[in-house]
Amino acid sequence: MPRVKYRDSDIDLVARMMRAEAEGEGNQGMLYVGNVIVNRVVANCLDFVDIRSIEDAIYQVQGGNYSFEAVQKGNLFYQRARDNEKRLAKQTLDYWREHPAKYALWYFNPYAPCPPTWYDQPFAGQFKNHCFYEPKANTCDGVYMG
Length: 146
Description:
Structural class: alpha+beta
Largest sheet: 4 strands, antiparallel
Distance between the termini: 11 Å
Number of helices: 6
Shape: globular
Strand content: 5-15%
């Protein structure tokens, strides 16, 4: 059973976002980005209470900006997904989860060492240039079950 309900168009959407956000970090980095997308759909807490679909997660607006910078600025996001990214996206949607993004709801590239917290959320780990953050204990049980 997949981690979330999804359509074929969602595979393409996740694939494009994974590539746009983490192509330079290889397949592993793209899988981590996919984890965060899926986690936001299953979390149902904090900033993600109204996120019910992959499309909701990708196009979420917070503070007047898209949550994923690539929607606003990323030329790669608007290019056709390649077979490799589609395969990785399907893998993430169906079952794949690993540390440091296993429970992460946020990531960013600080262009410096990862801070121990980000918007008061604890650091979960780093992969190449991206720092991953998961919710504080007892604030978002959904992400740990999904």
